[in-house]
């Protein structure tokens, strides 16, 4: 079931009051996916969790953390080419302070993939060495690929395997069955369906997921989300908005900003009226493709004092 209502009021940094979506999403196939993860966890040495580098905290699934408790785990910050480079470096440091290796990756172009394979092998080594010590034949490291929908799991596996062995489609939830991808003697990957958690305690996280496309656009009010996205970018990355849409002066907020963008991009109906739906799709497409610059939306949590002291 999916339910999204824009009813919760939140005060932004600029003191504007906006509505944050109240969202619950847990279709039947995601319940099945959670069962599959639990059933197959024993087959792997390492759990690889893919996060969206633009929203490392919002795209992290707390249900997955509970399921894989005790299993070696590392983080992939995928779509790093779309994220703020300085912020990504800070997130890598944050995860290191939490005892987790985080590898920034651009699965589409292959950047960081070699480093990822090395990190997986290193993480799995205690398990594979133990097997050999007990008389077993040396084998490849086995890992499970986990993450919420639309973080790029299929693209990453295709890059690792050197070919399109899984269906890649930019729609949340397209990968729905487990798949083993064997990569020679070094690595074996178990791909699992994307899983969203049954309830979003942090509604800002739900909003960030809507911004990036992890939640299907058909299940919420796109118009409201685009206005919230524009206000977020207006506060955090105003110069990128101005450069992309050739805006000048102080940026207006909300619908006025969307209208100005619509006029600049020629989104006009008969009589010179703004085609708001067309303008909304332009903004969403530009943001998700990186045409609005390299953006990181999640605010970095405080790094533990012990790490700050180093």
Automatic annotation (TrEMBL):
Among CDD domains, the record links this protein to: Ras_like_GTPase (cd00882), YlqF (cd01856)
Q: Fetch the SUPFAM superfamilies from UniProt.
A: P-loop containing nucleoside triphosphate hydrolases
Residues in domain CP-type G? 30-198
Source taxon at top rank: Bacteria
Q: Where are the transmembrane segments?
A: none
* Secretion signal, residue range per the UniProt entry: none
Give the matching Gene3D superfamilies.
1.10.1580.10, P-loop containing nucleotide triphosphate hydrolases (3.40.50.300)
Record flagged with keyword GTP-binding: yes
Ordered alphabetically, the record's keywords are:
Cytoplasm, GTP-binding, Nucleotide-binding
Q: Where in the cell is it found?
A: Cytoplasm
InterPro entries to which the protein is assigned, alphabetical:
G_CP_dom (IPR030378), GTP-bd (IPR006073), GTP-bd_ortho_bundle_sf (IPR023179), GTP-bd_ribosome_bgen (IPR019991), GTPase_MTG1 (IPR016478), P-loop_NTPase (IPR027417)
Residue ranges of coiled coil:
none
State the family named in the UniProt similarity comment for this chain.
Answer: Belongs to the TRAFAC class YlqF/YawG GTPase family. MTG1 subfamily.
Q: Which PANTHER family match?
A: MITOCHONDRIAL RIBOSOME-ASSOCIATED GTPASE 1 (PTHR45782)
The task this protein performs is described as: Required for a late step of 50S ribosomal subunit assembly. Has GTPase activity.
Instruction: Spell out the protein name for this chain.
Output: Ribosome biogenesis GTPase A
């Amino acid at each position: 079931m999916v339910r999204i209502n824009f009813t919760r009021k939140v005060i932004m940094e600029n003191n504007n009051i906006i509505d944050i979506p109240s969202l619950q999403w847990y279709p039947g196939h995601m319940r099945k996916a959670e069962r599959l993860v639990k059933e197959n966890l024993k087959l792997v040495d390492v759990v690889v969790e893919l996060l969206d580098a633009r929203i490392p905290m919002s795209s992290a699934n707390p249900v997955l953390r509970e399921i894989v408790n005790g299993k070696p785990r590392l983080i992939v910050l995928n779509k790093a080419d779309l994220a703020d480079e300085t912020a990504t470096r800070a997130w890598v440091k944050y995860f290191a302070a939490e005892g987790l290796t985080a590898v920034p990756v651009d699965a589409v172009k292959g950047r960081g993939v070699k480093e990822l394979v090395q990190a997986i092998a290193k993480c799995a080594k205690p398990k594979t060495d133990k097997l050999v010590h007990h008389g077993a034949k040396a084998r490849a490291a086995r890992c499970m690929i986990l993450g919420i929908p639309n973080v790029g799991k299929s693209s990453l596996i295709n890059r690792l395997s050197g070919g399109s062995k899984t269906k890649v489609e930019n729609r949340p939830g397209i990968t729905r069955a487990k798949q083993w991808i064997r990569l020679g003697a070094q690595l074996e990957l178990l791909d699992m369906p994307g899983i969203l958690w049954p309830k979003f305690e942090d509604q800002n996280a739900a909003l960030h997921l809507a911004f990036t496309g992890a939640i299907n656009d058909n299940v919420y009010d796109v118009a409201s989300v685009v206005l919230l996205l524009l206000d977020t970018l207006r506060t955090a990355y105003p110069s990128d908005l101005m450069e992309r849409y050739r805006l000048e002066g102080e940026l207006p907020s909300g619908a006025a900003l969307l209208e100005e963008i619509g006029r600049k991009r020629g989104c006009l109906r008969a009589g010179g009226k703004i085609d708001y739906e067309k303008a909304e799709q332009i903004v969403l497409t530009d943001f998700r493709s990186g045409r609005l610059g390299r953006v990181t939306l999640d605010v970095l949590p405080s790094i533990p004092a012990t790490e700050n002291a180093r």
